[in-house]
Design a protein that fits this description.
- Chain A is mostly helical.
- Helices cover about 75% and strands about 5% of the residues of chain A.
- Chain A starts with a helix and ends in an 11-residue tail after the last helix.
- By secondary structure, chain B is an all-alpha fold.
- Chain B has a domain of about 220 residues.
- Chain B contains 14 helices and four strands.
- In chain B, the strands form two sheets. Chain B has a two-stranded antiparallel ribbon. In chain B, strands 3-4 form a two-stranded antiparallel ribbon.
- Chain B is globular, with a radius of gyration of 20 Å.
- The chains are: A mainly alpha, B mainly alpha.
């Protein structure tokens, strides 16, 4: 039983890492530019399609991954310059709508290019198989690699934000844009950089997700809503909050799916229990978010704006 | 001047809507009555959302939740009437005199709970918490396996019954919906012009100032949230009757997105705008594929969203006052 818990906990953390990779960009973009980008999930999808496409051509996972990231960056750059840059001074309503429309466009465009049939990718041979963890459970190596990649990105981001000049500008810009601009920092260039980097994290996550799920239109939106839950729980704009929120959401969601059904069967008629437990475990993270927001209306680690 | 122009336009529209079934009958295209019934039902929900977004500045991203509550109330009652079983010890019913008021009442109750919790947050957090509540209801409906779960359920006994009215008749149902729409629209018009309406406008403009002059803005926001929930719940109940089919799709988050789109497309904070927006949006959805097809863009006619997305972005970026602005500010 302890083994099962441990395995599910790892699954939860692994989901959390995906969520973190997508949430990191989302929360940076919101924190720095005050923009809600619903189309961020589309970049996740673009990453997944890119790796599926390049994998078909090169037959190498690593090469495909390396080729995918510039493609995602290019798409993100176009999106930023053409649409997002016009939304910085608009209110949240306009941002929600314009990026919602962008989702319609990107999804439909992807359908035109790739059709409606999902694409599948194999786990790269080097990372297939399982690994024995702490002598307790044997766990798929690929999933361990994902957890590692997520942690690496988290550390990388922390170094950038806490230790470099760029990070200093980002932190300052989040607190007070005008002052930073007055001091001679090119804010619009910084906007583009942050957007493209955030998009690349999402694309990276999408590429890694390729072998685990089917690559299909709409895969980004389901994840996106979960990511919103993460960053809202963590406090929008805070990377630390996004990491914590992502792990909490990942673990709660996975644990809920794994153990709520068993728990409910003890109290309810089995014919009802299966349906209700599916619903309850899907609802659990939203319940969690509501509880967090009711207690702390700006999330766990709110950023301070002046 | 604008006022009379306005009223004339409204009366004209209403007359057109009243005469529409005759027109369709005369041109042998009665199936369009059903299309317009759908437009009118959706317009009720859009107008109710405009009370929140346009008049109070509350960007609710979970409005479809109330559509779901209304629709499922009607659906579940009909289901138990058909099966002759009970729900929590209560019998099902097909009577519109019970089902529709109950749908509205439950929507109000759910709106009260969601509103009471959500309105503690502001700005982007409010957008996200309403989205979350919408998702919660969506998954709740998905989990109701007895009522079809993912696939939804049919109303096997047909539409609700009312004394002296046959809702299963296409035209009578159209007028039934049109009546509700007109009543709700008039109610909203009165509401936004009342003292309460001015309180809402003040909340939109400057919430802090309002609380500092001693008005309880939380309470006002909660009231309008419940009223909007009632509107959407009514639309949900009518929609269930219209399609005689209820599925969790009605509470999908993209449905809430659609509602926001029509409010903006038409022009928010105008009541008429969302109605125009609904008509344009749903008619485009219906006819844009055909139009594109007739111009020879076959590929795009199947993928009309590929065209619609950019149009919408342009509207958001450059035509903020929407259709309403085009009709009343430039021409009038």
């Amino acid at each position: 039983m302890a083994q099962l818990y441990f395995e599910q906990l790892l699954n939860g953390i692994q989901l959390g890492m995906f969520l973190f990779l997508v949430s990191a960009g989302l929360t940076l973009i919101f924190g720095f530019m005050n923009v809600i980008n619903l189309a961020h999930g589309s970049l996740f999808m673009i990453g997944a399609y890119a790796i599926a496409l390049f994998h078909g051509v090169t037959n190498s996972f690593l090469l495909a991954l390396i080729l995918s990231l510039p493609l995602v960056a290019l798409c993100a750059w176009i999106i930023e310059v053409v649409i997002i840059s016009r939304l910085y001074t608009r209110d949240h309503l306009d941002q929600v709508l314009a990026t919602f429309a962008l989702i319609l466009f990107i999804n439909e465009g992807t359908t035109i290019l790739f059709g409606r049939t999902p694409m599948f990718l194999d786990v790269p041979p080097l990372l297939s198989g399982t690994i024995s963890l702490f002598g307790v459970v044997s766990y798929p190596l690929y999933r361990v690699a994902i957890i590692g990649a997520g942690l690496a990105v988290a550390i990388f981001l922390w170094i950038i934000i806490a230790k470099t000049r760029l990070g200093m500008q980002i932190r300052a810009g989040t607190t007070n844009r005008e002052t930073v601009e007055q001091l001679g920092v090119n804010i619009s260039k910084l906007n583009t950089i942050i957007f493209v980097v955030g998009a690349m994290f999402a694309g990276f996550a999408g590429a890694l997700a390729g072998p685990l799920t089917s690559v299909e239109v709409g895969m980004g939106e389901n994840l996106l809503i979960l990511c919103f839950v993460c960053i809202v729980i963590g406090g929008i704009g805070s990377i630390r909050g996004a990491l914590l929120g992502a792990i909490i959401v990942g673990v709660v969601d996975t644990m809920g799916r794994a153990f709520v059904p068993d728990l409910l069967v003890k109290f309810l008629d089995p014919t009802y229990a299966s349906g209700i437990s599916a619903g309850l475990s899907s609802m659990s993270i939203y319940l969690l978010m509501v509880v967090v927001l009711v207690v702390k209306p700006t999330g766990l680690f709110p950023i301070i704006r002046s | 001047m604008k006022y009379t122009h306005h009223t004339r336009f409204l009366i004209g529209c209403l007359l057109a809507l009243i005469l529409l079934p005759w027109l369709f009958h005369a041109t042998d295209s009665s199936y369009l009555v059903s299309t317009f019934t759908r437009l009118i039902i959706f317009a009720i929900a859009a107008v109710s959302l405009d009370l929140l977004i346009g008049y109070t500045g509350l960007v609710s991203f979970g409005h479809a939740a109330f559509l779901g509550v209304g629709a499922y109330t009607v659906g579940i009652l009909s289901f138990h009437a058909y099966e002759e079983t009970t729900f929590l010890g209560l019998p099902g019913t097909l009577s519109g005199l019970t089902a529709i008021p109950l749908a509205v009442l439950l929507s109000a109750l759910v709106a009260l709970i969601i509103g009471a919790l959500s309105l503690r947050t502001k700005g982007v957090y409010f957008i996200m918490i309403t989205l979350s509540f919408g998702q919660m209801l969506f998954f709740l409906f998905v989990s109701l396996e007895q009522y079809g779960g993912d696939d939804g359920m049919m109303m096997f006994d047909g539409r609700n019954t009312l004394p002296g009215l046959d809702l299963n008749d296409r035209v009578e149902f159209y007028y039934f919906c049109l009546t509700w729409f007109t009543l709700f629209f008039l109610f909203c018009t009165r509401l936004v012009r009342s003292k309460f309406g001015r309180t809402l406008a003040a909340i939109r403009q400057n919430e802090d100032r309002l609380s500092s002059i001693g008005i309880n803005e939380y309470w006002a926001k909660l009231q309008i949230f419940v009223i909007a929930g009632i509107g959407a719940g009514l639309a949900g109940a009518l929609s269930a009757n219209h399609t005689e089919f209820i599925s969790p799709d009605i509470t999908h988050w993209t449905r809430s997105g659609d509602l926001m789109i029509v409010v903006i497309l038409g022009g928010m904070g105008t009541l008429i705008g969302p109605v125009l927006g609904t008509f344009l949006f749903l008619l485009l959805e219906e006819f844009l594929p055909l139009i594109l097809h007739s111009f020879g863009f076959d590929l795009l006619s199947e993928h009309w969203r590929f065209v619609f997305g950019p149009i919408l972005i342009l509207v958001v970026l450059y035509a903020k006052s929407g259709l309403y602005g085009m009709i009343f500010r430039k021409g009038g």
